[in-house]
Design brief:
single chain, mainly alpha
């Protein structure tokens, strides 16, 4: 609920309409006013604000509501989980920061391995005929 300076209730459509006009006047992409709420929550998640704090900020009565909607945005925890699993399984450590050249080298190595695998499959296929 939003009230004006006098204390009267403001119709929510007025805010949405003014927001739409603001976007149009400034040649911005159309989004719903409510989308700002999601953007705010997404920025909070990306800034590593605890989910409980985000729940309180958004006014969700239930923690699960916030977690269900926004937990998929926490890419850094997925990276950390993958790195932990990688270490535990003794694979090569996933580097958080690789140079473009290192990434290109890794891609080239993977492409070579894939090509070798294709050749082996073809040899096996030829042998079975």
């Amino acid at each position: 609920m939003i009230i004006d300076d006098v204390g009267d209730l403001i119709n929510p459509d007025i805010i949405s309409n003014r927001f739409r006009t603001l976007l149009r006047k400034n040649h911005l992409k159309h989004i719903r006013f409510h989308d700002l709420r999601h953007s705010c929550a997404s920025l909070l998640v990306a800034s590593k604000v605890p989910m409980k704090n985000i729940q309180e900020w958004l006014g969700h009565s239930n923690f699960n509501t916030t977690a269900d909607v926004y937990s998929h945005l926490d890419y850094s925890s997925k990276f950390e989980s993958a790195n932990t699993l990688s270490k535990a399984l003794s694979f090569n450590k996933i580097e958080e920061k690789q140079s473009e050249e290192e990434i290109d080298d890794d891609i080239e190595k993977l492409e070579k391995l894939l090509e070798e695998k294709k050749k082996l499959k073809q040899k096996k296929k030829d042998f079975e005929m």
